[in-house]
Amino acid sequence: MAIFQYLTKDGDGNRKEGEIHADSLDIAAQKLSSGGMIVVNLKEVDTTWDFLGPFLDEVSLSIERFKNRIPLSNIVFFTRQLSTMFSAGLTIERAIQGLALEEKHKKFKKVLTNVGGNIRKGLNLSESLEKHPGVFSNLFVALTKAGEVSGNLNDILDQLATYLENLDDTRRKVRSAMNYPIFMVIFLASMIGAMFVFIIPKFSEVYEQLGAGLPGATRALVNLSDWISVHFYGMSMILIMIIIGLWLVSKTKKGGYVFDSIFLKLPVFGPLIDQSILNKFCKTFGILLGAGVPVLDTMALLKKVVNNRVYEKAIEDSANYIRDGYNISTALRRTEVFPSILLQLSSTGEETGELDSLLDRAADYYYKQVNALVDRMTSLIEPILILAVGAVIALMVVITYLPVFYLGSALQTGL
Asked: Would you kindly state where each structural domain of the chain is located, as residue ranges?
């Protein structure tokens, strides 16, 4: 399916531009005209080398976020305070100026000072925030813009602060569940590496001096230790290059899709990642619809919020189905990615006209699921990892000290 860039206008002369997916130029023109729009310009987008542009954008955005690492708690506090100060009657300029003066985080203080300076130059809040994509997400900017257009910016900022608080809490729970296993794996790898590089060679030298033959298991361990000691730096360089290569591949469209598909299918962490994404999807969807953002614009923003290529593709396909005339629940169902509970709530919400409210309830349901999964994983993974680490270290120690059990015969042989 090709991608076509279009420029259309309606009967009132309002112009709109964007991209549409279709099998041919004629079909794309028919899709646009069927909605009552007048096609002004329509051309096919050349995607032969298009992978390079998005790839470089992803890498640059990742670098920008790395350079401007600001805790989400600081952004939550800023949003809550900005909402309170604005609803109390202060102008946006004065509110941000005051928050910038009080901000302790140096990088965030610099960002807020720059935002305040842009507002003084005549830009509105959303335009000023948009200049800092490494700090303020697309969702943050979009909701701010929706609040400016609708005139209820303080309510939108309050909802956004609540949403970010829940998101921060969810992230903390997911990280708390994953930090311990990651730490234990790194600790185990460090212990094994230290034994292979430093401890086992010492045993080898002792028995070589005694002239004693080593047991088969210990001899194999010593040979492996010698090989690792010789190739340690080369292996480290190769490992670093592999990690960098995998990171770069994950930033490409197809590579990211493969990685994200694998993450969702992991036996322990996959369900946790999946429930966390659904919580973010439903909460964001509900807020955007409640703020009056059009459905297709909402889908475009959701695609940038979920941070998973599998769901990004599903949202993109859903947007195409909606553009073709399907309702939201049917469009989501046709992707075969979203769970039945979400589809049922979406269908009910469309029938009753309370889709944003039911999406918010769905977000609460998935939030509770995340909490339950984190508690369950913590209670199961900790003892399993402790046993695994203990077993590996015990095996290494037994194999290393195995010749000590034959110390008498080894000394006799040496003498």
From this structure: 2-48, 71-136, 170-415
Q: What's the first-to-final CA gap in the chain, in angstroms?
A: 81
Fold of 2-48: Ubiquitin-like (UB roll) (3.10.20)
Q: Across the chain, which distance is largest between two alpha carbons, in Å? A: 104
Q: What is the pTM of this model?
A: 0.65
pLDDT in tens, 118-166: 998 888 888 888 888 778 887 788 778 878 877 778 888 888 888 888 7
Question: Please, which residues have CB within 8 angstroms of residue 331's CB and are 6 or more apart in sequence?
Answer: 317, 318, 319, 321, 322
